[in-house]
Amino acid sequence: MTTPLMLLHPLGVDHRFWEPVVRALPDVLGEPVVPDLPGHGSAPLPARDATVEDFADAVEELLAGHGPVHLVGVSLGGIVAQVLAARRPDLVRRLVVADAVAVYPEAMRAMWRDRAETVRRDGLAAAVEPMEALWFSEAFRRDAAETVARVRRMVLAGDPEGYARTCEALAVADTTDRVGSIVAPTLVTCGADDAPPFRLAAEWFAATLPEATLGWLPGRHATAYEHPRSFAEAVAAFLR
């Protein structure tokens, strides 16, 4: 029986983030399980003081009906995936950590706290421009404007409080003491033009995880969305 594949999305979007990747995945992998993380899409809000461990709790509850999975997470989803793989090795057969960190540098932690305040005050429109600049290359923003607009609409349709609480969870996230206990074979991927903290984190994961493979992909932070075929091919090759 094929091990199910679960995909965990980044901040501010929902399960629809994965639609381009799902279309590019080979049929032999089956239909992926693509949940909404707390505070996103149809999922309930996380608690006001939620941590990424609480997000992992929500995913673990979903896995009660699916059993072990191959787990793929981008950014926020990648941090949640680390937590789950570390504490429940029986539930994660193989792990893909994409464009994620174990802990944000202090400047980014402050940025997440500021972003939470800004979104509560000014709404999600205030988060769109910095998100697009981080996620997508200038060429993609210019040449695939409608695709970028779909992501923008996804963000704007979200819950500002859910976004803010997730930002606060990211500000305190730290899996550095957990990573060494991950036993699942792991593919670490990162956009070659992603921001420096994510590129440095990819190299750190590759050196720290007991059984890791590092793969660089084209694009910036949302390489999975900008280059879904390249991302899907990398994941499929790793799972084979």
Automatic annotation (TrEMBL):
InterPro entries named in the record: AB_hydrolase_1, AB_hydrolase_fold, AB_hydrolase_sf
Gene3D superfamilies per record: alpha/beta hydrolase (3.40.50.1820)
Domain AB hydrolase-1: from-to ranges: 7-234
Classification via Pfam families: Abhydrolase_6
Superkingdom to which the source organism belongs: Bacteria
Protein name: 3-oxoadipate enol-lactonase
Gene: pcaD_2
